Amino acid sequence: MGKKKRSSFKPVSLWTTPSVIMLLCLTVIPLLMLLVFSFMNRNIFAGQPWPGWTMKNITRMMGSATFWRLMGKSLFTAFKVTMICIIAAYPASWAIAKIVKPHNRSIFMMVVILPFFTSQLLLIYSMMNLIKTGGVLLTILDAIGIHGVNTWLYTNKATVLVLTYEYLPYMILCLYSSLEGIGDNLVQASLILGASKAKTFINIVFPMSVPGLLSGILLVFVPVAGSFMEPGLVGGANGSMVGGMIDTQYSGSLNMGYGAALSCMLLIILSIIMVLVRLSANRAQKAIGGDVE
Amino acid sequence: MAELAVNELRKSFGDKEVLKGVSFNVKSGNFLSLLGPSGCGKSTILRIICGLETADSGEVLVDGRDVTKIRPEKRGSGLVFQNYALVPSMNVEKNVGYGLKMRKVPQEEITQRVAEALEQVKLGGYQNRKVTQLSGGEQQRVALARALVTKPDILLLDEPLSALDRKVRAEMQYEIRSLQRKIGTTTVFVTHDQEEALTMSDQIILLYKGEIEQMGDPYTIYSQPATVFASDFLGKANLISGKLTNEGGKWYVAGDGFRIPVNYVGGQEGDEVKAAVRGEYFEFCSADDEGANPYHLTTRIFTGLAWRLVGTMGGQALDISALGNHANTLSDDSDVYVRIRPENVVYYNN
């Protein structure tokens, strides 16, 4: 095998062209369009003249109490869902990565991934069936003697429940990939050096799982903060979140420019939060692991 | 410094019995090696001593105190793993100081003791290095410093050198040994490498299939292997079959064309026995010397340190190891005479 032959398979810039084009068409250009639309006077419809620039959308957004309230609610809901996912996913992924025997692991992974095989809408409706009045959950509670429980359906709790149910697998998968790489003898070494299990978690397992945790947070927090279908379906009359408001601008009031402005603001706020999360994770890691030259 | 005693340890994994009642003592400040092939239970013993594994029965005593039921984090033993087990998210200082931090030692003292420990393992000034950027030998030094910095009663080393290359390994053998002598921590060292066990230990326990085959200081274990397995595992001895005979009050293992003198340790005259003899204990002699046996030399192999002579005695294969001088003058396919002293021969009943 000559060296020359192999070198011709080296990735050259040409090879990345398809992915660059895809990224450009499906991510960069739409984002730029969103930004441009935020400053447009009215909707663009085929055949109409250029609508002209305006700051109207921005000022309206800045002054909209509803928008900021819904934004706060979205972020708080996303925070709750992410926290529940983290707390629930650590033991689950630890169990799959460390306690389950290797040859049984794929079965457990399959169970985690199984919800992905069903449409999201179906997942939501099946969850609604579980928690509605007269549904399985309340019937069981009734049967074991717990009466008078109000249905959770059409409350914010239902939104959190359904979103957690939908996004937990992402968190489990992300944490699993990090936890799997932690050697058993690291944990044993920590025990022998006098650390309790809790301290071993804080000092060894947690810092080493930060990469997985960060991608998990990204994959859960961001889509949950922007979700509109779940709050709309199970959140009830007061369930709407900022995603619902944006959705209304596009599908209901056909106010594309205002919707774009709201989307851009959501994007900016989420980016800032993600940067802050990453920075604080790095700081925590450094506080535990010490400076490196 | 502490005395370690292990009594009647038994352990099974499933239906496989890994330890079949192992007992031994290590005197304070001594260096004990648990030597044996893989699967002999040596690592399991170590893990039971530090509490990572619980024995089915038996007890572990440190200075007469029963620690069998104490959890690993409360035992205060120091353990060095084969693959170092350093925390990759921590720098060298945090790794070494981890045990002290868990014991709530004040930060100033931690800094000072970590510096001392790193100095001891010749890694002074490495505090802020990333452990993943160190070489294997350096990582193992960090692991050693981490185990020693808490001043453990017992230091446990689980094949700490087997992942290192030959040269670094020899260096580390010497350093671990001299460091251990200096600080005097009672040490249990697990290895499958007989040379390592011989060079480093005060005492060796040879394990085979969950039982102790032989216990003793390195010289005794090497020169007086108690069983066929021991003679074979430690530096491959020659096993020669013959009959136990007595001539004029002296005992021999004799066969067709040879007669090896032995010290009598039991058995009847005429018993079929196996004599274990190490190649380096043979010396060349002339035909009429006392105890001379004819040896047919087939091939000579030069190994650097000595010549390995491949040949036969009375039709049975016999490898002799000979230092330069005389062996240089021998030629392949020749007949010479060799003899051996009775204290260098052990025999076993078949």
Describe the model.
The complex is a heterodimer of chains A (293) and B (350). Chain A is mainly alpha-helical and 293 residues long. Chain A has a single domain (54-289), classed as Orthogonal Bundle (MetI-like fold), CATH 1.10.3720.10. Chain A is built from 13 helices and no strands. Chain A has helices at 3-7, 17-38, 56-63, 65-99, 102-113, 120-131, 136-143, 156-180, 184-192, 197-225, 229-234, 242-252, 256-289. In chain A, α9 (184-192) crosses α10. Helices cover 27% and strands 36% of the residues of chain B. Chain B is elongated and about 75 Å long. In chain B, β4 and β5 form a beta hairpin. In chain B, strands 6-7-8-3-9-10 form a 6-stranded mixed β-sheet, sandwiched between helices. A 5-stranded antiparallel β-sheet of chain B has the order 13-12-11-14-20. A 5-stranded antiparallel β-sheet of chain B has the order 15-19-16-17-18. The mean pLDDT of chain B is 90. Chain B has 350 residues and is α+β, with helices and mostly antiparallel strands. Chain B folds into 2 domains: 4-228, P-loop containing nucleotide triphosphate hydrolases (Rossmann fold); 236-349, Beta Barrel (OB fold (Dihydrolipoamide Acetyltransferase, E2P)), CATH 2.40.50.140. The interface between A and B is medium-sized, with 25 and 31 residues.
Question: Would you state the CATH class of the largest domain in chain B?
Answer: Alpha Beta
What percentage of residues of chain A falls in helices of 4 or more residues?
over 70%
Measured by DSSP, the beta-strand proportion of chain B falls in 35-45%
Q: Determine the CATH superfamily of the largest domain in chain B.
A: P-loop containing nucleotide triphosphate hydrolases
Number of helices of chain B: 10
* N-to-C series of helices and strands of chain B: EEEHEEHEHHHEHEHEEHHEEEEEEEEHEE
Query: Major β-sheet of chain A, in short?
Result: none
The overall pLDDT of chain A, averaged over residues, is 89
Radius of gyration of chain A: 24 Å
- Helix tally of chain A equals 13
Number of strands of chain B: 20
Judged by helices, strands and strand pairing, the structural class of chain A is mainly alpha
The CATH topology annotation of the largest domain in chain B reads as Rossmann fold
Q: What is the oligomer described by this structure?
A: heterodimer
Please estimate the helix content of chain B: 25-40%
Cα shape of chain B? elongated
Q: What's the architecture of chain A in CATH terms? A: Orthogonal Bundle
What's the Cα radius of gyration of chain B? 24 Å
